[in-house]
Amino acid sequence: MNSVDLAFLPALEQARLIRAREISPLELTEIYLERIGRLNPALGAYVKVMAEPALADAKAKTEHLASNPEHLPPLFGVTVSVKDLNPVEGVPCAYGIKMACDRIADQDDYIVGKLRQAGMIILGKTATSQLGSLPYTEPPGFPPARNPWNLDYTPGGSSGGAAAALAAGLCAISQGSDGGGSLRGPAFCCGLVAMKAARGRISFSPGGERLNGLAVNGPLGRTVADTAALLDVLSGYELGDPYWLPDPDPSFLAGLNTPPRPLRIGYATRLDPIGEVDPVCRQAIYDTVRQVEDLGHTAEEVTFPNLEDLIEPFVVVWESVLTEVGVPWIVMEKMNRWLYWRAWRINSGAYLQAVAKLQQVARRIVQFCHPYDVLILPVYMHQAIKVGAWKGLRSPKILDNVINWVAPCPPFNASGQPALAIPTGFAPSGVPVGVQLVGRPADEATLLALATQLEQARPWSHQRPTFADQTET
Fold it and tell me: What HEC string does the chain produce?
């Protein structure tokens, strides 16, 4: 097996080969670091490559494997990337702000510790939109993150670097976060699987989360099984968390072995007041509906609740985080400055009214979804945009464009329901498209089981971008 084949091998298969001593953590880490050095300058996926600590960790794990082959953590020796919103001790955490590139984290984020406990090797920090606020990854002062399927297009955001790195074979699996589609959108743009877990599934320890329960850390994988395995790693209640869920039994990965019972599935291609999804994304939904029916499930078209009442309070809460993170407005990019000053003018009463309104709308969404085991919806309303497509626009127009693009995602950040993005094919531009599967509260397991059926019926993980499907020259 050549280095490209190894780089694109599913994370779980890499873990199996490591356990069987057919390849070492050091060999895999060296393969990925070589690929990062060669491909990342054109891709902009990583903002900080942790080559020395990654190699040291890989050498130690290779030595450990030689003398202690038993009782290894589940993803021992597998490489992972970490989004540059999550601190890694001793490494800069810039949050997409160029002036913060020398800001060294003094401790690991909780989920970084979870990755280490699982035996994973961190290759570096991946690019994010500035402060994670936008669905494309073009923070000023950094190279824009690009889509490996077509470098003219965005990999999405704010976990755009994470998705670009994984889709290009620059890590085995990626960590990201989702406060309004920031995992699902990049997965949609880059042909990956991403889970926005249920609220309370993944801890924000040791600090607090800033978006009133809207945001969650989570996994990006090339396969459903990889995504489930990383979800297992990241999940768990930490004493003092404001939200919590019981651990799944069996684990998310083990649960994939049991096909789901016949499911009642709803689907929609229109979200008012935005309108109808574009033809390419609409066809992705129709194709998926035919697949689930072929698998023995029942599907019916539904009219999703009008999102008019969701948009304004969601934006109020979303933009308010910019006034809370402690970053001076003067170092922010144009769009974030504009959002900062909008939020600064909102008083605490207006903020609490927005939170209450979000909770009311979320209640209606959950009640609407309750009769269905799964909903099939668009991820975004149209395919990926080109890099820089909105750069010259005025801030109010950018906000309108963002709302009209990402509209299918925020409802489930508001409701706390799990939502899984899966790839389905490609747009004429060559960039991937997909759909999202939305589940009942705390029911990631059904989404993963259905996605496994769909993946087995029409596999997708063997597909690679031409840009990344080349050995060292």
Answer: CCHHHHHCCCHHHHHHHHHCCCCCHHHHHHHHHHHHHHHHHHHCCEEEECHHHHHHHHHHHHHHHHHCCCCCCCCCCCEEEEECCCCCCCCECCCCCHHHCCCECCCCCHHHHHHHHCCCEEEEEECCCHHHCCCCCCCCCCCCCCECCECCECCCCCCHHHHHHHHCCCCCEEEEEECCCCCHHHHHHHCCEEEECCCCCECCCCCCCCCCCCCEEEEEECCHHHHHHHHHHHCECCCCCCCCCCCCCCCHHHHCCCCCCCCEEEECCEECCCEECCHHHHHHHHHHHHHHHHCCCEEEECCCCCCHHHHHHHHHHHHHHHHHCCCCHHHCCHHHHHHHHHHHCCCHHHHHHHHHHHHHHHHHHHHHHCCCCEEEEECCCCCCCECCCCCCCCHHHHHHHHHHHHCCCHHHHHHCCCEEEEEEEECCCCCEEEEEEEECCCCHHHHHHHHHHHHHHCCCCCCCCHHHCCCCC
